[in-house]
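Hi L., both proteins are below.
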Amino acid sequence: MARNIIGRQHEKEILSNALKSPKSELIAIYGRRRIGKTFLIREFYKKEIVFSMTGYSEGNRAVQIKNFMSKLNEVAEGFEKEKPKDWIDCFVLLKRYISRMRQRKTKKIIFIDEFPWIAGSKSGFLPAFENFWNDFCSARNDLIVVICGSAASYIVKNIIKNNKGLSKRKTQKINLKPFTLKETKDFFEHKKIQMLDNEIIKIYMSLGGIPEYLEQVQKGESAVSTIDRMCFQQGAYLENEFDEVFESLFDTSSFHKKIMDALANRKKKGLSRSELLIKCGLNSSGRFSRSLSELEMSGFVLKYNSYRGKSKETLYRIYDEFCMFYLKFIKPNKANTWIQLNQRPEYKIWCGFAFETICLKHVTEIKRALKIEGISSENYSWCNENAQIDLVIDRADNWVNICEIKFHNSEFTIDAAYLKKLETKIAELKINKLKRKNTHLTMITANGIKNNKYSTSIVDNSLTSSSLFQ
């Protein structure tokens, strides 16, 4: 049933439990484009799907209804002469098809992919679907209806937070996210691609854990060669991907792109909402707020907690590795090769930022490596005028892990000057925020730290990038 699905353990458990439940289930699944939503459902439920349709990205109501009838006629007989006038008529036909099916041991799956493309504002699709679920599906115990879409904001607003016809009707929701590093490694091994952990991280920093992108990685290629072929060579696979993704997800993407450009040119820390408005040259408005929220829901932007001294603030940063890589390197360097660009100092500096984002995505793995995963904690960044800390794991047991994140191609060396810098960070944090808590300095590096008198005097825990693969 799920033999070819790499990772996705939590999601597979949800889908499996839906098959076993004593009632019909309505599952909403959303996530970034290319993330593998359709593959997950079609592969997991391939033996149980009795009706499936995918919306047309540009289709009006007549085109969508024609597509619906085409798909219905593929799986059922007797509907060839039907000419539905609207979506109410369409769902009447779908009810008729389902009702005349024989009973079976497993539930019947109805899969509606790219739901937002079908449910235009004047299409009448959403209220007709609400009635189909409430009047027909929920009265049975043998159906699973899966609705799916890349426009995460639409799914969240109109399905998950629907307070009308679908209020409290959703039984499960799945926010499908990119592969973790472990899942990425498992994916490559499934494809018989052998690659060192740090090579995987270099690819991940550029492409992220997006399954469709990772599918293009070829056996025997280095990370540099893979990125050059996919992003910089003439006609590269990802040459126009950024624009295509944003134009397909958002009706008007100009504000979304302005926000992404501003965040791509941020300082080391993220930007607050007010800083974003200034950098974008925009006034606070509903459109700006909606665009920022849509970027967050779609997985392109991370909203996270930070402290400036004792004051808590909310910051934003790009959370999608490919988007960050595109804006920093692909877009301004279309005439260059990655073989040249990856030798530049700015790439080495950028690697530190990208590795930090990856660590923020893998805090669970970091806590597991530190053997503190069972302890409740608040995770945040911290800074004042004298120091900045990438990640603070503020634990309920009165201990704090101060995490210093560094990406180097070899062992990282702590010398006398850097020791003083680390001591300042610890002292400033304790004075400004954590006076009564004990601290552990945790170094998270690509290849470990060099053992010398400076490192042994201050480092309590040293993790390498391999810890992120747990």
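That was the first. Here is the second:
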Amino acid sequence: MALHASGEDYLEAILVLHKKMGMVRSVDVARHMEVTKPSVCHAVATLREGGFLTMDSDYFLHLTDVGREVAEQIYEKHRFFTDRLIEAGVDPEAAERDACRMEHVISDESFQRLKAVSEQKS
């Protein structure tokens, strides 16, 4: 199943919240992403069908191995672009918003090359 940017955003949010809080429910995702609970429920159903996450009997969300891999990749891109934009003098809030868009459109090859060049300069 191919993921759209919004699905990637949900996986990334679940990953971030899990790192921060340990256990994550749909309401936590809704608050974090500033979306409605029905929107999260629809996304969760789609991501469950795609094999990206599961929900236990207490309604906690858990990323599958595939879901975690996608979320980690998106989160890595997000942090990379946010940091580079802030280093370039972009306002942190604008950097976060722009990084969120950039993380979805860049190919993996281009990202890996940018990352390698950035690491060489460090």
